[in-house]
Automatic annotation (TrEMBL):
<feature type="domain" description="Kazal-like">
    <location>
        <begin position="118"/>
        <end position="174"/>
    </location>
</feature>
<keyword id="KW-0732">Signal</keyword>
<dbReference type="GO" id="GO:0004867">
    <property type="term" value="F:serine-type endopeptidase inhibitor activity"/>
</dbReference>
<dbReference type="InterPro" id="IPR050653">
    <property type="entry name" value="Prot_Inhib_GrowthFact_Antg"/>
</dbReference>
<feature type="signal peptide">
    <location>
        <begin position="1"/>
        <end position="26"/>
    </location>
</feature>
<dbReference type="GO" id="GO:0005576">
    <property type="term" value="C:extracellular region"/>
</dbReference>
<keyword id="KW-0646">Protease inhibitor</keyword>
<dbReference type="Pfam" id="PF07648">
    <property type="entry name" value="Kazal_2"/>
</dbReference>
<dbReference type="InterPro" id="IPR002350">
    <property type="entry name" value="Kazal_dom"/>
</dbReference>
<feature type="domain" description="Kazal-like">
    <location>
        <begin position="191"/>
        <end position="248"/>
    </location>
</feature>
<keyword id="KW-0722">Serine protease inhibitor</keyword>
<feature type="domain" description="Kazal-like">
    <location>
        <begin position="27"/>
        <end position="87"/>
    </location>
</feature>
<dbReference type="InterPro" id="IPR036058">
    <property type="entry name" value="Kazal_dom_sf"/>
</dbReference>
<keyword id="KW-1015">Disulfide bond</keyword>
<protein>
    <recommendedName>
        <fullName>Kazal-like domain-containing protein</fullName>
    </recommendedName>
</protein>
<dbReference type="GO" id="GO:0030154">
    <property type="term" value="P:cell differentiation"/>
</dbReference>
Amino acid sequence: MDFERRSVLLLCSVPLILVWMHQTTCMPLSDQCAQINLIDCNKTYKPEGNESVCCSDMIVYDNLCFFAKAKCVNLSLTILHPGQCISTTVNPVNTTSNSTTASTASPTASNSTAPDDIIHEQFCLLKDQIHCPDTLDPVCGTNGKFYQNDCEFAKAKCNQSSLGAIADMTICKSQTTRQIRSVANERDVDIIREQFCINKDQITCPDTLLHLICGSDGLFYMNECEFAKAECENRNLRLYSSLSFCSRRLG
C-alpha cells in the first residue's frame, strides 16, 4: 500500500489499524485510538519506506503511526507535507491561514514541469461532474462522428485517447475514416485542458485525497485536482519536483 493510500486512510480520522486490515471505511474515533495506542510504533508497526511527515505543530513524526497517536491527543493536528519541516523566517505555520512566507528559491526549467498531463487526467477522472451545455457548436472527430460541442468531444476523447478533432466539418460528411485519420492533428487546440478550466467551478475536488503537489508559486496543493484548478488561473504555474521548495499551504 503506497503512502498516498495510507494518507487517505489517515484522513478518515486516524484509522491506522485499518491500514493493516486493508479496509477503507472508518470506525468510531474512540475505537481507532484504542487500537492505535496498543501499537508499538518502533517495533510492531512496519512503515512502507520513508513515512516521516511534518505536521501543523511543526514537529516531524518518524512514521504515520507516531502521527496517528499524536492526532488522537490533538484532533486538529494535520500533515503539512512529507519529510522534514522547512525553516521559515516567520512564526510556525498556522493551519487556518497561509501566512507563512515561501522559500526564496526559484524553480528552474530542469526541475519544474508543465501540468498538462495532470489537467487531462483530472478532467477525465471527474468528467461525470461536468454538465455540458446544450450549445450547438459541432466538432468533427477523426472517428467520422460529429459531437455537439467541445465539451462533449472532450468527454469522448477520455474514452478514446486517439480521437482527434478536425476543423473542416465537410471531412466528416464526405471522407472515409482512413482519410480522416490522415489529417487527425489539423486542429491543435487542447480541448480537454480548455474544457477543464471552463468547467472547473462545476468540479468538486476530493477532500479525502492527500497527495501533496508543490507548485512553482511556493504553495502546496492538497492533490492534483486542486493544482489543476490553480493552473487555470495561473498559466505560468508549474509542477515542482522537490517538495522542499514549498513552505506554504493553500487555504
